[in-house]
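Tokens as discussed.
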């Protein structure tokens, strides 16, 4: 059974930081590119950051310089460090796994991030 379990969301003031974690089980972690997406109320889900199986990251323009994605192979975990948070970062954040050699992909259940004073 494949599971992607996110944690680390919460309420934070503008300018603050949070670190999201996604623990993955049931798949060969190293064979998957991992991503973080977010969906705000009334908006479409959008890619925030992605990291290849080899560790190459890329980011949405809106979070460049503020967010950092990383992965820990032995722990089967992907992280999203979010600094200098803004109210517009408020959304449900989802972890995503995409197989590099097949059309399989999986989603986590999401974790709420709210940036507000």
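Sequence:
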């Amino acid at each position: 059974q494949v599971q992607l379990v996110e944690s680390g969301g919460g309420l934070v003031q503008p300018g603050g930081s949070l670190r999201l974690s996604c623990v993955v089980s049931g798949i060969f972690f190293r064979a998957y590119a991992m991503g973080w997406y977010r969906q705000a109320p009334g908006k479409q889900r959008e890619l925030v950051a992605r990291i290849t199986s080899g560790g190459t990251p890329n980011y949405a323009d809106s979070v460049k310089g503020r967010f950092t994605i990383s992965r820990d192979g032995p722990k089967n975990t992907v992280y999203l460090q979010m600094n200098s948070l803004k109210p517009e970062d408020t959304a449900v954040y989802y972890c995503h796994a995409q197989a590099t050699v097949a059309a399989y992909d999986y989603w986590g259940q999401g974790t709420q991030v709210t940036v507000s004073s």
